[in-house]
Write a structure and sequence with these properties.
The chain is an alpha+beta fold. It is elongated. Helix 8 crosses helix 10. Strands 12, 13, 14, 15, 16, 17, 18, 19 and 20 form a nine-stranded antiparallel beta sheet that branches. It has a seven-stranded mixed beta sheet with strand order 3-5-4-6-7-10-11, sandwiched between helices. It is built from 21 helices and 20 strands. Helix 16 links the parallel strand 10 and strand 11. The relative contact order is 0.12. The chain folds into three domains: 241 residues, Rossmann fold, CATH 3.40.50.1820; 105 residues, no CATH class; 136 residues.
């Protein structure tokens, strides 16, 4: 259906909304409007696989059981509803300049892609369907949309099912609730000695790195895919956002505890590389704009956040307003990450260039007393339980369920089906009477902190320096494979991937051959994982088995020089003139830090 771009008529134009209705086999209740969790995302493409039957939705809301039609709407500016495209933002730019350039290209239309405008669109769809009332399901940012509709049209809401809500009203641009929740989250993630290989004190490590970064970013160099060094830096917001992404990037979480500990002990290289990797990963808009529009995401979020400057403030004056507000808040507002993290918030930085962004007053309309279920994961830092409780407190009679050992979106990550059952019972008119307490499908056991010197490694395969060097070679090969699993290229399915070593050199991985006889070839080019030890050579894996005849050259200021060959799963040779021999198994090379799932 088509709606006006500007209902006030000041800006000409219209938006054609893409709407998909999935009928229940026995619909006896008002339709359920479903929203995407990410800002800028196409709801339809998020939940439907290239136009095929909605397998994910049907698994969570089975058609034989539900009594509601599902209505999926691409909000204006997303997906099939005129997806916005601004190339700089779409390529992952987050600067104020990128946002300003995007708004400039959109002209007067830029302010008409807000959540408020989408709420009016949703009500137009409701009216077109002839539904006096609708139910709302919102996950993440989708909960923001659902709550905005409920405030505007309280008499047209049958009930709300919300998951991982970000805020009851305007979004917090500093993520302060998540920062405060970090120490409790760290204790839960590391319970049962899951972080013991990396650190005995994860909470203390994060507090110390927060104190260190309060005086300025941690600087150093990282090694690029060609083996060249380039400057890099880490700020406290980068550390926070990497920790907060642990539920969606568990391999990064498995190494993060050791990286933070090393940085606090004077070895910043591992943390610098981890944050640099995260910045290079596909951003919001790395997909096609019709799947996720970065421009629409900025328009939605920047006009939904309570930013610390009055609307209309010149872009050049906004940073001073941010600094003034943050300086007036207690440091404890931002947990162990401190005021410096708030000042580097990527949301604040990007929205600093969006003309319509600014201070938002407390909503003047209360949330309605409609049946509401709110579900949150107790490990989430982007939607922590503190926020879910605040949302529940604003809705008379709302039911809150915090699911243990889950991050964002427990409905989509619960292998037991318990959360799905609770949602479906609620949407069918029931009252939640069950608490889903079984653990998440995800378990992460941290990897050891990278060695800061050869002396930290135990000898293996021989005594003394040759044995320590042998162990360093094994660790270097494992680092190469672990690093490659974290690059954007491998995520996009590339057959050849290159990445820099931790301290020097580079790695290259190739997939060779047909699927049934495919081999993985790791080429190591002067890579250094342990200071003073450099490795060059090739390792080949075929169907999980190690190949024979591989030769590795070992050099470096601290190393016992020599060469090693691989026969089966035994690495042998001479280092420092002495014979060395020990295991090199595929299980060791692909150690993921104990990342596992419940399936």
């Amino acid at each position: 259906m088509t709606v006006p771009l500007d209902r006030a008529g000041k800006v000409a134009g219209s938006v054609t909304l893409r709407v998909q209705r999935i009928r229940a086999r026995n619909a006896t209740r008002p339709p359920l409007f479903v929203f995407a969790a990410e800002p800028g995302a196409s709801t339809i493409r998020t939940h439907l696989d290239s136009g095929s039957p909605p397998t994910s939705l049907e698994s969570w809301f089975p058609p034989d059981e539900r009594r509601r039609d599902l209505v999926l709407i691409d909000l204006r500016g997303t997906g099939g509803s005129g997806a916005l495209r601004c190339d700089l933002l779409q390529r992952g730019g987050t600067s104020a300049a990128a946002a300003a350039a995007c708004a400039g290209s959109l002209g007067p239309a830029a302010t008409h892609y807000s959540v408020g405008e989408s709420v009016a669109d949703l009500d137009a769809v409701r009216a077109a369907l002839g539904a006096p009332k609708i139910a709302l399901f919102g996950d993440g940012f989708g909960a923001t949309v659902a709550l905005a509709y409920a405030r505007r049209h309280p008499d047209r809401v049958d009930r709300m099912a919300l998951q991982s809500p970000r805020a009851a009203g305007p979004l917090d641009p500093f993520f302060s609730a998540g920062m405060r929740a970090a120490p409790a989250q760290l204790r839960k993630v590391c319970a049962g000695r899951l972080c013991a290989r990396a650190t005995p004190d994860p909470v203390g490590d994060f507090a110390r790195i927060g104190e260190r970064l309060a005086s300025g970013p941690l600087t150093g160099t990282v090694v690029d895919a060609a083996g060249r060094r380039r400057p890099a830096s880490v700020d406290p917001f980068g550390v926070f956002s990497t920790l907060a992404a642990g539920g969606t990037d568990p391999f990064a979480l498995a190494t993060l505890f050791g990286e933070v500990r090393n940085a606090g002990a004077g070895d910043p290289a591992p943390l610098l590389r981890a944050i640099d990797w995260r910045r290079s990963l596909p951003a919001l808009g790395a997909a096609a704009p019709t799947r996720i529009s970065a421009a629409a995401a900025v328009a939605q979020v920047c006009q939904s956040a309570d930013l610390p400057w009055p609307a209309g403030t010149a872009a050049a004056d906004r940073p001073a307003r941010v600094a003034q507000l943050v300086a007036g808040l207690p440091a404890s507002t931002f947990g162990p990450f401190g005021r410096a993290a708030a000042l580097r918030s990527d949301l604040v930085e990007t929205c600093g260039g969006w003309p319509a962004a600014g201070h938002l007053p407390v909503p003047d309309r209360p949330l309605p007393a409609v049946p509401t279920l709110i579900v949150a994961g107790d490990l989430s830092l982007t939607a922590p339980p503190e926020v879910a409780a605040a949302v529940a407190a604003e809705i008379p009679g709302a039911e809150l369920m915090v699911v243990s050992d889950h991050w964002e979106s427990p409905l989509f990550s619960d292998p037991t089906g318990c959360v799905s059952g609770v949602f479906n019972d609620f949407l069918d008119g029931g009252v939640p009477d069950e608490q889903c307490s079984r653990g998440s499908f995800l378990t992460v056991r941290s990897l050891k902190a990278p060695p800061r010197s050869l002396a930290e490694l135990a000898p293996l395969g021989a005594r003394g320096r040759p044995g320590r060097t042998f162990n360093a070679v094994r660790a270097t090969l494992r680092d190469g494979l672990g690093a490659l699993n974290r690059t954007p290229a491998i995520l996009s399915g590339a057959r050849v991937v290159r990445v820099g070593g931790l301290r020097r050199g580079s790695y290259r991985v190739s997939l060779i051959g047909r699927p049934r006889v495919r081999r993985l070839v790791l080429r190591v080019r002067g890579a250094s994982f342990v200071p003073g030890v450099r490795v060059s050579g090739t390792v080949i894996l075929a169907r999980g088995d190690m190949s024979t005849g591989v030769r590795l050259l070992v050099r470096g200021a601290e190393a016992a020089h020599g060469w090693l060959t691989l026969r089966g799963e035994t690495l042998r040779g001479r280092l420092g003139g002495r014979k060395v021999r020990g295991p090199l198994t595929s299980e060791y090379l692909f150690d993921s830090g104990g990342v596992s799932n419940g399936y």
